Amino acid sequence: MTVNDNTGGTGDAPKAGERVALGVTGGIAAYKAAEVLRGLQRAGCRVRVAMTVHATKLIAPLTFRALSGEHVVVDDYAPDNPDPIAHITFAQTVDLFLVAPATADIIAKFATGVADDFVSTTYLACDAPVLVAPAMNTTMWEHPATRRNIETLRADGVRIIEPDAGEMACGTIGPGRLSAPERIVAAALEILRGGAARGVRDLAGERILITAGATREEIDPVRFISNRSSGRMGFALAEAARERGAEVTIVAGVTSAPKPPGVRVVEAVSAEAMMRAAATEFQSATVFIGAAAVADYRPAGRSAQKIKKSDAALTLELVRTPDILATVSAARQPGQLVVGFAAESENVIEHARRKLHDKHLDAIVANDITRDGAGFDAETNAVTIITADRAEPVELPLMSKLEAAHKILDEVVRLRGGRAGKSARAK
Ligand code: CTP
Question: Rounded CA gap, 101 and 30, in Å?
Answer without folding.
Answer: 6
